[in-house]
Amino acid sequence: MNWRPRDYDRLERAIAERRRIRLVRGGSELTVLPERLATDFGMEVLAARHLGTGDRMEVGLDEIDAFDVLG
Length: 71
Hints:
Elements: H1 5-16, E1 21-25, E2 28-40, E3 43-50, E4 56-60, E5 64-69
Antiparallel strand pairs: 1-2, 1-5, 2-3, 3-4
């Protein structure tokens, strides 16, 4: 995914409003609750909680193929 400023805005708004997102990564679709954006060794990372298991996960933004903010 080629991240544009409006994509960052949508993701940051979803984090602030505690809204779920659906993301596509490597052909798999996940629904997560995003918690924060961070930088880890120069790579932008999304910290989120998996809705099905409750596990925390970190996904590099460069690994995300697409995402949608859910209601």
